[in-house]
Amino acid sequence: MSAYVIVEIDVVDPSGYEEYKKLAGATVEKYGGKYIVRGGAAETLEGDWKPKRIVVLHSTRCSAPKNG
Q: What are the DSSP calls for the chain, one per residue?
């Protein structure tokens, strides 16, 4: 069964986040995941949600996001 992980990120340390991004991709791939969405403009259609950055991951193994 597939799993999707949706993450809202508020980057408070841009240089640290750049280092994190360099390492995170290998970890995502190691557990069978891939990036679907990374950043970009977000538009709220209803309500007052104002996300700073959104990342969506897909994994073909439902247990991977839970156990990784």
A: --EEEEEEE--S-HHHHHHHHHHHHHHHHHTTEEEEEES------SSS---SEEEEEEESSTHHHHH-
